[in-house]
Specification:
The complex is a heterodimer of chains A (about 170) and B (about 350). Chain A has about 170 residues and is α/β, with parallel strands linked by helices. Chain A is about 25% helix and about 25% strand. Chain A starts with 5 loop residues before the first helix and ends in a 9-residue tail after the last strand. In chain B, the strands form 2 sheets. Chain B has a 5-stranded parallel β-sheet. Chain B has a 4-stranded parallel β-sheet with strand order 2-1-3-4, with helices on both faces. In chain B, helix 2 crosses helix 6. The longest helix of chain B is centred in the C-terminal third of the chain and has 24 residues. Classes of the chains: A alpha/beta (about 170), B alpha/beta (about 350).
Chain lengths: ~170, ~350
């Protein structure tokens, strides 16, 4: 099955985001991407939206809820939040929303940088399989996938989505 | 610690054999992850770099307003110190607390040892409290190996210094300091100066520098403070400080333990300073951007001049700061290895 074209989804996300920000009276939010795919998407989205604030990057490895099961992530990259989050409207961006656990960890980490005025979740793709009560306000595409299927973002240039079939039931933490 | 030793040892009372050379089966999992950290010896370059990379992420985190992450929430870490050390114990404690672990500090010299309780009995009692990690410092070489051999599966042991044998986290934080300031090890000349003979720090540093393929490792000391087999460690030996410092990129000064003076290793502190003290004048022999390091606590006016210890080349206090990040990296990696 053909996967959606990423630039088209980014255009769609940018339109949705503009409308969302206008509806909620939010001006100049801080765009924060979650490593790695979320950062790639966040960079493009920030550019399309003409956001002036520098990009924020989150690595949620130290905040995951599955450390006691699968241990240390081998490639932890430092998070970079360019300024205090107190009172700032955050546009949190990830590539794929699946179980919701990554977003839960990202929220925990964000609050260690301050108390944002609001956090809006934007994702390139959302799929079924949520394990936590988390929903995105901005969605590039909704996809129905089997339990042994995953959708992965490849990049950074060019960005493309790839559908992957796992040999065993997936335990993706997206 | 020899593999043949399996009898209980009285804490601080019985001398343990010197550690064997191949502890890898003990400190690594079958797939090469760090299960315990007992010594630098035998670890490979990739693993050392992985520790330093992980420490880099923690260093970034330690600069945040909120320095705590939930990684080791629910874990209990015991600082088992048979030998006093304020800085090492404090940085281990802070590292554990910033990972959200619970920390128990036990000073054995004032508890079970004086009651005649054996080391293994102490361990068994602590294990019965469902602890997850022991950080061990002991005056006898091999104690951390001994404990690692006897702890229940799932418990990690970190060596926080054993006798003259090893002090792996100190060596790792030194490597982290060098890498942060100098980058590529292969182009560096590093001089370790002082009491090499009695220094577990120097042994661990030499192993780490060699594993990271440092361009040139020098040891500089009077003959009385050099081990007999020092040339087998892959280092260049200097007995003259001026010659040993020439063009080096990093100088690691070692603490001169004053009790050595009483055992005729050296004539006097004054003479030692004249011959092996790092002064502003001598520092000029090194590369102009040379780093000055010291594992602390420094004896000012014995091995290092105050002006140098506090001067622009000194990264001594940064070593202390980085020590927290490196210990966080090691703690999270060993706990992760048990889980995965």
């Amino acid at each position: 099955m053909k996967t959606p074209d990423v630039p088209t989804l980014l255009d769609r996300m940018a339109d949705q985001t503009r409308q969302y920000l206008a509806r909620h009276d939010i001006d100049n939010p801080m765009v924060v991407g979650i490593h790695s795919g979320g950062v790639w998407i966040a960079e493009h989205l920030r550019e399309r939206l003409g956001v002036e604030r520098p990009l924020g990057k989150l690595d949620i490895s130290f905040y995951r809820d599955d450390f006691s099961r699968i241990g240390m992530h081998p490639q932890v990259r430092p998070s970079e939040l360019p300024e205090d989050l107190d009172g700032v409207h955050v546009l949190l961006v990830d590539d794929v929303l699946y179980t919701g656990r990554t977003i839960r960890a990202a929220l925990n980490e964000l609050f260690d940088y301050g108390r944002p005025a609001s956090v809006t979740l934007a994702v390139l793709v959302e799929r079924d399989g949520r394990e936590l009560p988390i929903a995105a306000a901005i969605v590039g595409e909704h996809m129905e996938l089997g339990t042994r299927e995953q959708i992965k973002l490849r990049g950074p240039e060019p960005l493309r989505l790839e559908r992957v079939t796992l040999e065993t039931d997936g335990d993706a933490d997206a | 610690m020899s593999d043949t030793v399996d009898t209980p040892v009285l804490a601080g009372a019985t001398r343990l054999p010197e550690p064997g050379p191949l502890p890898n089966h003990l400190q690594l999992t079958d797939d090469g992850q760090l299960r315990h950290l007992l010594t630098i010896e035998g670890l490979n370059r990739d693993l050392l770099n992985e520790i330093l990379d992980t420490a880099e992420s923690f260093a970034n985190m330690n600069e945040k307003a909120v320095k705590k992450v939930p990684l080791l929430r629910g874990k209990t870490i015991v600082n088992l110190f048979f030998e006093a050390s304020t800085r090492t114990r404090t940085t281990f404690e802070l590292a554990a607390k910033r990972l959200s672990a619970d920390v128990l500090n036990i000073n054995i010299s004032t508890s079970s040892a004086v009651k005649g309780e054996s080391l293994l009995d102490t361990l068994r009692n602590l294990e019965a409290m469902n602890v997850d990690m022991f950080v061990v410092r002991h005056e006898e070489s091999g104690t951390a190996h001994f404990i690692a051999r006897h702890v229940a599966p799932g418990i990690s042991v970190l060596n926080a210094g054993d006798g003259r044998h090893a002090h792996p986290t100190q060596a790792l934080l030194d490597m982290f300091t060098i890498r942060r300031h100098k980058g590529d090890f292969t182009k560096l000349k590093v001089a370790i100066v002082g009491d090499i003979l009695h220094s577990r720090v120097a042994r661990s540093q030499i192993h780490a520098l060699n594993i990271l393929q440092t361009g040139e490792v020098r040891v500089v000391a009077p003959c009385s403070l050099l081990p007999a087999n020092v040339d087998q460690l892959g280092v260049h030996v200097y007995n003259d400080l001026d010659a040993g410092l020439k063009d080096v990129d990093v100088i690691i000064m070692l603490r001169l333990q004053r009790e050595r003076m009483e055992h005729a290793h050296l004539p006097s502190e004054h003479e030692y300073y004249q011959l092996f003290g790092l002064t502003s004048r001598r520092l000029q022999l090194a590369h102009p951007t040379c780093l000055v390091m010291h594992p602390g606590p420094a004896n000012r006016g014995v091995e290092i001049e105050s002006a140098v210890a506090d001067g622009p080349h000194s990264v001594i206090l940064q070593q202390v700061t980085y020590g927290i990040s490196v210990r966080q990296a090691v703690m999270s990696m060993v706990m992760g290895a048990h889980q995965s």
